[in-house]
Amino acid sequence: MSAPLLRVAVPNKGSLSQSASEILRESGYRQRHDSKELTLIDAENGVEFFYLRPRDIALYVGEGTLDVGVTGRDLLRDSGAKADEVLELGFGRSRFHFAGPTGKFSDLGQLAGTRIATSYVGVVRAFLEERGIDATVTRLDGAVETSIQLGVADVIADVVETGSTLRQAGLETFGEVILESEAVLITRAGSVPSGFEVFKRRLEGVLVARSYVMMDYDIRSQDVTAAVALTPGIESPTVSPLHREGWVAVRAMVPRDGAQRLMDELFDLGARGILLTDIHACRL
Ligand SMILES: Nc1ncnc2c1ncn2[C@@H]1O[C@H](COP(=O)(O)OP(=O)(O)OP(=O)(O)O)[C@@H](O)[C@H]1O
Ligand SMILES: O=P(O)(O)OC[C@H]1O[C@H](OP(=O)(O)OP(=O)(O)O)[C@H](O)[C@@H]1O
Ligand SMILES: [Mg+2]
């Protein structure tokens, strides 16, 4: 009998949906082509995907109905589900803030007695409770920025990415950031579903491939120690002999950020034939 399929929840709409499917596709999994498909079986890789609202994903995974999910850290916290964050996925980054009319509020002490509109009631109530602040929290589904203008709330608490929605509504954030969020991989608290390790390793491989590039260069043997100090690689750089006497070839993974500056420094050290190539996937 074949092993049961790993049941994975993927956002079906919203900010996380496209990036989630992209990273899964890059990890070698089948993904739906039609946004109306609700489930998809990738039998070859032993996985079944369920396309669900990211807000609901934490609940399904927390209850153990599904094994693994992609959702936002803020949505996971808001749900109160008993699920663990097991991998940060590097997309869907946002900050959760309180905001009010420009110039009206300056610190979170002023929240007492206000009416707060939010789609994240769980996060907001927990925050107020922790600080012993008494305020009225109203749950709205979206477009919370408009609620102040409509007289329904004095303050909002919402996700801010670029800040342009707030500006358009004549609002500004105040107080410290409540929560820094990004897309995360979650499993039921304390459980490691069968087949999960391979699934996670594939995604980690893509994350590393996204943040690292492969660098190759030739350098005089006498300068190789200085050069590999700049490019130590993840485990150790490969140094191979060159046909040209007194020269070696070096190959190492380097962080994508700053790779151009590194090429300049290597060139100054005497390195030549410096090449930078993308990595598509890896297992480290
Ligand atoms: N600009 C953004 N707007 C909303 N959510 C964002 C943004 N950037 C990142 N996110 C993250 O995406 C998740 C929100 O998922 P959700 O499905 O509600 O997306 P959405 O874009 O608000 O979709 P919709 O409004 O259609 O429901 C949260 O984890 C949030 O932190
Ligand atoms: O800082 P910004 O880059 O402007 O992004 C933040 C805005 O984007 C989201 O709204 P969304 O488009 O999801 O609409 P919604 O309010 O209906 O959920 C979020 O709720 C903010 O309103
Ligand atoms: Mg939204």
From TrEMBL:
The record's listing under SUPFAM superfamilies reads: GlnB-like, Periplasmic binding protein-like II
According to the UniProt entry, what is the EC number of this protein?
Answer: 2.4.2.17
Domain called ATP phosphoribosyltransferase catalytic: residue spans: 53-192
Query: Could you tell me which Pfam families the record lists for this protein?
Result: HisG, HisG_C
Regulation of protein activity? Feedback inhibited by histidine.
**Listed pathway(s):** Amino-acid biosynthesis; L-histidine biosynthesis; L-histidine from 5-phospho-alpha-D-ribose 1-diphosphate: step 1/9
Q: What keywords are assigned to this protein?
A: Amino-acid biosynthesis, ATP-binding, Cytoplasm, Glycosyltransferase, Histidine biosynthesis, Magnesium, Metal-binding, Nucleotide-binding, Transferase
Q: Which residues form the Histidine biosynthesis HisG C-terminal domain?
A: 209-280
Q: Where in the cell is it found?
A: Cytoplasm
Cofactor(s) demanded: Mg(2+)
Q: Where is it mostly found?
A: cytoplasm
Q: Give any GO molecular function from the UniProt entry.
A: glycosyltransferase activity
Which reaction does this enzyme catalyse, per its entry? 1-(5-phospho-beta-D-ribosyl)-ATP + diphosphate = 5-phospho-alpha-D-ribose 1-diphosphate + ATP
Question: What is the documented function of this protein?
Answer: Catalyzes the condensation of ATP and 5-phosphoribose 1-diphosphate to form N'-(5'-phosphoribosyl)-ATP (PR-ATP). Has a crucial role in the pathway because the rate of histidine biosynthesis seems to be controlled primarily by regulation of HisG enzymatic activity.
Question: Which family does the similarity line name?
Answer: Belongs to the ATP phosphoribosyltransferase family. Long subfamily.
Kindly give the HAMAP family that the UniProt entry links to this protein.
Answer: HisG_Long (MF_00079)
Q: List the PANTHER family.
A: ATP PHOSPHORIBOSYLTRANSFERASE (PTHR21403:SF8), ATP PHOSPHORIBOSYLTRANSFERASE ATP-PRTASE (PTHR21403)
What name goes with this protein? ATP phosphoribosyltransferase
Q: Give the source species.
A: Nocardioides koreensis
